[in-house]
Design brief:
Blueprint: E1 24-30, E2 40-46, E3 53-58, E4 60-63, E5 69-76, E6 81-88, E7 94-98, E8 106-108, E9 114-123, E10 126-136, E11 146-148, E12 150-153, E13 158-166, E14 173-179, E15 188-192, E16 201-204, E17 207-213, E18 216-228, E19 234-245, E20 253-254, E21 266-272, E22 278-285, E23 288-295, E24 302-305, E25 310-315, E26 321-326, E27 335-339, E28 346-349, E29 352-357
Parallel strand pairs: 7-11
Antiparallel strand pairs: 1-2, 1-29, 2-3, 4-5, 5-6, 6-7, 8-9, 9-10, 10-12, 13-14, 14-15, 15-16, 17-18, 18-19, 19-20, 21-22, 22-23, 23-24, 25-26, 26-27, 27-28
């Protein structure tokens, strides 16, 4: 797919099936019959995967933490542009989001009142920068034809990373950025009050993949190591470790001390457990990854799953069950659950790309 972004002419998108499943708390994009357009069925399901049915078509979808809305994106113009829409599940009302949001990168605030997206600057056929924009989402969408995503970080001279996160109280944003049009080198981590974008603060160097949790901000922080590629000559390569910092960047401390070999990037965080004492993350490279857990205060990494490209998605309120997806190939993306100890693995759907879940996702109460 050509990811060049043109200014999209966003129109209201039709909802395929009437929404309204009591207790539905999970979405995913079905890849069972992949569409040439890149727009596949967006499925809504209950916590345990039951009752799955199509509510829209698109390339990606994110359910709001309170379970009342789904933000989804659709490819248009043969893949050269993207349209972003918010669907209200109780009524079926849809609202377009203007402002140039690009595909795959959406993040709801915990209070379900704000939506973050990545933007792009394109010169000719080249993407020369990535920015950040935010839309304020009304509680009810009836009668609201469109809302605008307001730029927070310009896509000119910036390369905002694809993972950004709100603080638990929805008042702060953490994101990574590489300054300059070239976009080379390690990113730095920033904190920002969205009501004052100019007042953003750089809090950690050589860091990305921020995950805000009850006990602080977990990030992947990078150094350069020498590693062999397939037994060849050692080369200098980036290697990450999980660090945790206070929201203002103070008290930064290294949590993992992983020493694997080969072209592996190293540990990166994905989730906190609700108690704030365990971080779940992945270690990946060469099209494989393992899911692990580690005490938030530091300690030994314990493997949860060791399958191809495993991504943690959500964790139950008790902290006992993890929702995850595997990326086996371009079509097969099993969605499943596993206990935090690595036991009790269960597959919920076989073709489930880009899943998301509500804040109170709980498949086995």
């Amino acid at each position: 797919m050509n990811r060049k972004l043109l200014t999209p002419a966003i129109a209201a998108l039709a909802v395929v099936a009437a929404p309204g499943v009591a207790g539905a708390a999970m979405t995913y994009v079905s890849t069972r019959t992949a569409s040439a357009s890149g727009n596949n069925p967006i499925m809504l399901a209950a916590d345990d995967g039951s009752g799955a049915h199509q509510v829209a078509s698109g390339g990606t979808a994110e359910i709001s933490p309170d379970g009342t809305k789904i933000a989804y994106q659709t490819l248009t113009r043969g893949g050269d542009a993207q349209a972003t829409t918010i669907l209200e599940l109780a009524t079926g009302a849809t609202t377009s989001v203007t402002g140039g949001c690009v595909l795959w990168n959406l993040a709801w605030s915990p209070d379900s009142a704000k939506l973050l997206c990545q933007t792009q600057r394109v010169v000719g056929e080249a993407i020369t920068g990535e920015g950040l924009a935010m839309a304020s989402v009304p509680t009810a969408l009836g009668g609201v034809a469109s809302i605008a995503a307001t730029p927070l970080i310009s896509a000119t001279g910036n390369h905002v990373g694809t993972q950004f996160t709100f603080s638990p109280d929805s008042t702060q944003i953490a994101f990574s950025n590489t300054r300059g049009n070239a976009g080379f080198g390690y990113a730095s981590l920033y904190r920002m009050d969205p009501s004052n974008p100019a007042g953003r603060t750089r809090i950690l160097a050589r860091a990305d993949t921020p995950v805000w949790g009850p006990s602080g901000l977990a990030v992947a922080r990078y150094s350069t190591v020498r590693a062999r590629m397939g037994g060849g000559i050692p080369q200098r390569m980036p290697r990450s470790q999980v660090w945790v910092a206070n929201p203002d960047g103070t008290g930064a401390r290294q949590v993992t001390h992983w020493s694997g070999s080969g072209p592996i990037t190293g540990p990166a965080p994905a989730l906190w457990n609700p108690a704030g004492n365990i971080i779940i993350g992945t270690i990946g490279g060469d099209d494989t990854s393992i899911m692990f857990r580690v005490p938030a205060g530091g300690g030994r990494i314990t493997q949860i799953l060791g399958t191809r490209m495993t991504d943690p998605v959500a964790i139950s309120p008790t902290g006992s069950t993890i929702l995850y997806r595997e990326n086996l190939d371009s079509q097969r993306s099993p969605l499943g659950t596993v206990g935090i100890s690595g036991t009790g693995r269960r597959i919920l759907a076989r073709y489930a790309a880009l899943p998301s879940a509500t804040a109170n996702w709980n498949p086995y109460p």
